[in-house]
Specification:
By secondary structure, this protein is of the alpha+beta class. The protein has helices at residues 16-32, 34-37, 53-63, 104-109, 133-141, 199-215, 236-246, 290-296, 301-309, 331-341, 390-403; strands at residues 38-47, 67-73, 77-83, 90-96, 122-130, 164-165, 175-180, 193-195, 221-231, 250-257, 262-268, 280-286, 312-320, 359-364, 374-381, 407-408, 411-412. Helix 1 packs parallel to helix 7 (236-246).
Length: 413
């Protein structure tokens, strides 16, 4: 597709500044060689608290298609790799060896009342493959993107000959990492010593896998569909442009969700035939900031989330195979009921209908006790091509907002 002539979808109005620099960024990516260097998004990275990694992996076994493949140990962390289909991004879980470990993640989390309960737990960011790691960093540094260096980071995972990570964004709280596309088999990465799981850990994951397979729901959960970060109202355009600068994605479009006083902004990889090979990156922001909204008294669950948890990833969505289950319900309804029966809590009922025309059925889980992330399930019915419907997003956002309230003083958000 020609990014320079593509007209973004949606009814959310963007500024002249945004429209001008969106095209300038596309052009600079091409001229600087970044477009030729970068491949697909190949991994999602999450850090959890010391002692939570095994329980979190068990949760991933139950709720996602990810399964453990290997683990490493560096000076400060255990690092766990999980995989679903080979062509889909991997999932990396970081676990500090010492609960007192402090880096930019903990320092950032401690600024927000509901984030400091799990100060080391946070979605870290995505990793892209690249043909040349050093050249990629050089290009991006010339575009004013900062990177971790070994003498400047507390966790060597973020800066080593196998992975280069950007500094945490002041706009989104996320980082972007890069890894050589020809060495991602991880046979000899310079990220630490390879370690084996203990017998009890192996048994725990085997039990989780058998439990997930017993009901048959696991085979219906295909892969990551998109990841959604919540940010402040006034930083929406800057956050999107920053991500476009650091990736090979394009701005697909943005839609107002008037019922919840917010907008949903989608960015996609133009080089894949299936978004699960390089999932969409979504940013959600209030339409009016909280101090102005005090005049209007509109709903603002998106900005409340940022005030309570900080700018950060809100949820990771997984696509469910479209179809009718043998029980007579849609596959997503079967998946959700199965997980509910296993004790997985959800925020509300499945929203959306799949009758005789293209549509979308979606639902949010409650926040993970380990990652603070919500898991979303999405079933696209009859060839639905989008990522949401306005009514669905409004219902999901409202449900999440009720669950993310922070009661303090005389302000209840």
């Amino acid at each position: 597709m020609d990014l320079m002539t593509y007209e973004p979808l949606g009814d959310k109005k963007n500024s002249d500044f945004f429209n001008e620099y969106r095209l300038k960024i596309y052009q600079r990516r091409k001229e600087s060689g970044l477009e030729d260097l970068l491949g697909n998004l190949c991994a999602l990275v999450v850090q959890v608290e010391t002692g939570d990694a095994l329980a979190y992996m068990q949760e991933l076994y139950m709720m996602t298609p990810y399964r453990f493949t290997s683990a490493f140990l560096n000076e400060t962390h255990k690092i766990y790799f999980l995989q679903s289909k080979p062509e889909f991004p991997r999932f990396i879980v970081l676990e500090p060896l010492d609960p007192g470990f402090t880096d930019d993640i903990k320092r950032l989390n401690n600024l927000y009342p509901l984030a400091r309960k799990k100060p080391n737990a946070r979605y870290v960011g995505e990793i892209f493959t690249t043909k040349d790691l050093d050249e990629t960093r050089g290009v991006l540094e010339s575009h004013n993107i900062r990177f971790h260096y070994p003498n400047e980071t507390e966790n060597r995972f973020f800066s080593n000959p196998h992975f280069y990570f950007s500094f945490r964004s002041s706009l989104t709280g996320n980082s972007v990492g890069y890894t050589p596309s020809d060495t991602y088999d991880l046979e000899s990465p310079d990220i630490g010593d390879r370690i084996l799981l203990g017998p009890e850990e192996v048994a725990a994951l085997e039990t989780a896998e058998a439990k997930a397979a017993a009901k048959g729901a696991d085979a219906l959960i295909l892969g990551v569909d998109h990841m959604a970060t919540r940010i402040l109202a006034g930083e929406r355009e800057d956050a999107i442009l920053e991500f476009l600068t650091m990736s090979n994605y394009y701005f697909w479009g943005a839609y107002n969700i008037s019922d919840q006083n917010s907008s949903t902004n989608v960015n996609r990889n133009p080089n894949v035939d299936d978004d699960k090979k390089s999932p969409a990156k979504v940013f959600t922001a209030n339409n009016t900031p909280s101090f102005v909204n005090s005049f209007e008294n509109l709903p603002m669950p998106t900005e409340d989330f940022v005030r309570n948890f900080g700018r950060r990833m809100h949820h990771v969505a997984y696509e469910v195979l479209d179809g009718d289950h043998a029980s007579g319900e849609k596959n997503v309804d079967f998946v959700v009921e199965t997980l509910k029966n296993e004790g997985v809590p959800f925020l509300a009922h499945v929203v959306g209908e799949c009758k005789d025309e293209p549509n979308l059925k979606q639902i949010f889980s409650k926040h993970s006790a380990y990652s603070i992330l919500i898991t979303e399930y999405v079933e696209r019915c009859f060839g639905f091509e989008g990522f949401f419907t306005k009514s669905n997003v409004a219902d999901l956002t409202a449900a999440a907002g009720e669950d993310e309230r922070y009661h303090h003083g005389n302000v209840f958000d």
